[in-house]
């Protein structure tokens, strides 16, 4: 009896302790800023949202997916906060994380589906498919015992080909009209963030970064050392279309250009104390000329890098005003395998400016901003591009820069409006450009292999008039009429398709080396790098 009285005394306390221990550890995965480091606690009291979901599940007249309903409710709630807080369902989390991790497990090919057939567009050199003998132009007939020639989708073929490193997948391919069985041992496939790195002129190197993943700094340093070994004195760092990624990778790269213990960026939020990111090491390129290329799609971590170099007058910016994302997200893994990427702070450039553009008019207006810039003439008019956005700040040498709306370039280059004509837009919707160039490449592989480098190809390859006529017929069959197309649009199309041919041969590096020969922003950057 005495023991029972003691148990009655201690039971409430035990229950209280159990309730207090209801907390979740933030998973340490770096997103487009920094890692989640602290514990966070949830109240044991059920919220009205949970109560409503429970009642719907128990009492609603029809059967519905409460997961879908809950996901929609979460997304609607986050949309009230800011445009970059985001909920990632469990089914999509692995794929989303792969992009930041810089690799995935698979067979190392790029493919495209033509006429219900999976065609190999490129094969990773030294990867599993290359070692197994796959070639550009091969067509998958079967994977294992399953046919993949009818009703196949990109998602289905990905699931069939991907798998743990070291496991095998048996495929049947069609090559030159002959079926061939190929067994491929899967491996870890890199997802490079460095698109191209080469000497564009004697003494001038070019590096293009497409994102900031866990491998970006490593890739950048390998390219930097290679270009320095080739005599690079000036560098063009191309951050156009770079939507950001992991903050610390951008910080480490900035450190290679800045000396001493200079401040690179700092972050701060209502519940996050200020954190400074400073130079920590002797950089490999602290004195050479640097030109950074930006456009309206340069965002987040890439703006951190551009802003730090601009504030310290270490680089000149060429192009157009950047996107304007200055919010810091941390990723928290949830109990059901999903994740929450929550905005926890803002970042500030060394001069103290926040370059986050306004989002008080809602997500739709925020996402419409780039189109509004075009409609208002900002992408083509230098004067409108130079309108100050928000508070003025000073660089280390006293130049005026502005916060509140992206990084302003020091040298403006207008957007080429010919690339978005109605005829070209309809052509892109049909995939006629990529389909035609791929089929052309497959039919002319021997000719393509005669070119030993992208430079040789850029100089030596020209489309013929018969090639253009073939393309017109191909586009018309794909419901992409080019009747009466202006000469400038024709030139753009031929340049674009030439770049795609180079991509099949030399991947992204070949594409950019060819396309850069016509790039007006790059031409301006070359004069600045002079």
How would you briefly describe this protein structure?
The protein has 530 residues and is of the alpha+beta class. It is built from 19 helices and 23 strands. Strand 15 and strand 16 (272-278) form a beta hairpin.
Output the number of helix runs.
19
CATH topology of the largest domain: 2-enoyl-CoA Hydratase, Chain A, domain 1
The biggest beta sheet is recorded as: 6 strands, antiparallel
By DSSP, the count of extended strands is: 23
What does this molecule look like?
The chain contains 19 helices and 23 strands. Strands 5, 6, 7, 8, 9 and 10 form a six-stranded antiparallel β-sheet that branches. It has a six-stranded mixed β-sheet with strand order 12-13-14-17-18-23, sandwiched between helices. Strands 3, 15, 16, 19 and 20 form a five-stranded antiparallel β-sheet that branches. The protein is globular. Strand 19 and strand 20 form a beta hairpin. The N terminus is likely disordered. Helix content is 39%, strand content 23%. The protein folds into three domains: 88 residues, PDZ domain (Pdz3 Domain, Roll), CATH 2.30.42.10; 206 residues, 2-enoyl-CoA Hydratase, Chain A, domain 1, CATH 3.90.226.10; 109 residues, no CATH class. The protein has 530 residues and is α+β, with helices and mostly antiparallel strands. The chain starts with a helix and ends with a helix.
